[in-house]
Amino acid sequence: MQETKKRQIAILGSTGSIGTQALDVIAAHSDLFEARVLTANNRVEELIQQARRFVPAAVVIANDAHYEYLRDALADLPIQVYAGPDALCEVAQGGEVDMVLTAMVGFAGLAPTIAAIKARKPIALANKETMVVAGELVNALCHEYQVPIVPVDSEHSAIFQSLMGESSPIEKIILTASGGPFRTFTPAQLADVTPQQALHHPNWDMGAKITIDSATMMNKGFEVIEAKWLFGVSPEKIQVVVHPQSVVHSAVQFEDGAVKAQLGVPDMRVPIQLAFSFPTRLSSNFERLDWWQMPHLTFEAPDPDRFRCLALAYESLRCGGNMPCIVNAANEIVNRAFLEGRCRFLQMAEVIGQTMEKAQFIKEPTYEDYVATDADARRIAADILTHTS
Ligand code: NDP
Ligand code: MG
Question: I need a labelling partner for 346 at 20 to 30 A (CA). Which of 54, 185, 290, 321 fits?
Fold first, then answer.
């Protein structure tokens, strides 16, 4: 890495689980990295604290109701304060920004990611929903603007690391899954699980939305889609393997039968740091694997009958077009509804499945089609939910 200029990083979603861990990495390597842009949606107090500590050039609060409060709180510092979704796109394109970490949640990540790519900013991709919704379009733009994407999602970082130094074809990707908190639950038990139970992930401490997605295994379905677009591998070559200990973060099998995996203690700061420093590895004081205290590593097949969301994600990938976008939108609706006690656990997959049947299918969607599909599918899913609850 160049010693002379610090890498200027825009963190979109700095107040979240990934965002705060990214700031830990920046603080630990303040000689190499600087937080250039910080953004949040509603957690304005956290954003103010971060801004006072890291003094970025700009901050954005996506929900503009908080704008004046934020501006006044930072008035004594040389920080530009903006509000609204369009401002997210503008700051991601800022001249000094060297890399954009997409750490916001949901479909809202798509527009700023595209804006950053068009400004030729390398992407550290956490916001998997962007690839789920519009992976083909994002890939085409990355190709056109010659922009690299470095994955932050732990599985995709593991695959990326397994591919470092390799140019031979991939025979198979082994995408590991913890199985979430309900891995061993029977359908009868699943029917009654609560948001509190679902929020208690066995291995990872993450934002609420992805934690619920992990409990339904929609998260793993999304990761299959993400892997397809990031690594150019067809879905039949992506095998989901349930590995409850989350030590093997994922693996790649090559045509000679060799399998390369990346292992480690579950800690998102490892892939975040690698994305920031790539192609170099930096030192860290993160916890190391203790081979003598290692849990037994076990592997089992996923059960798409109990975890129907996983099957729906595969189905959307087979359909192609805007179907994954439909699934993502419906999932955002039921995920929120489940968290708020307005949807039962198993009902989530039912609503998503019905939305897939009702929403208009578009074989070759444009960006505008994705935006319209997202809005439509949300409306349809919300409607189904109201009429079946
Ligand atoms: P969190 O919910 O913890 O944080 C989300 C961040 O995005 C917050 O800063 C939030 O602001 C902001 N945000 C939420 N909605 C919007 C919006 N509409 N517009 C702009 N900003 C918004 O999520 P995570 O950090 O857990 O996840 C972030 C992304 O990374 C997701 O796509 C997730 O799938 C992915 N990911 C996360 C992992 C993890 O370990 N957490 C692992 C792998 C991938 P505010 O705080 O104000 O609400
Ligand atoms: Mg993951």
Answer: 321
Task: Give the CB-side neighbour count of residue 179, counting CA atoms within 13 A.
Answer: 17
Dig out the tokens for 127 from the structure. 């916001």
pLDDT the model gives residue 201: 84
Examine the pLDDT at 202 and tell me if it is beyond 90. Answer: no
Inform me whether the pLDDT recorded for 2 exceeds 80: no
**Ligand 1: which of 50, 90, 105, 336 to mutate, most ligand atoms within 8 Å of CB?**
105
**SS3 state at 72:** helix
Residue 130 tokens, joined: 């962007």
Percentage, residues of the chain above pLDDT 90: 97
Domains defined for the chain, CATH in brackets? 7-147 (3.40.50.720), 320-389 (1.10.1740.10)
271-309 exposure pattern, b = at least 16 Cβ within 10 A, e = fewer: bbbbbbbbeeeeeeeeeeeeeeeeeeeeeeebebebbbb
Q: What's the average model confidence in pLDDT over 52-72? A: 98
- Does any ligand 1 atom lie closer than 6 A to the CB of residue 210? yes
- Residue 262, pLDDT > 50, answer yes
* Residue 236: DSSP 8-state: G
Q: What is the atom index within ligand 1 of the atom nearest the CA of 204? A: 40
- Is the C-beta atom of 127 inside 6 A of ligand 1? yes
What is the C-alpha separation between 219 and 317, in angstroms, rounded? 14
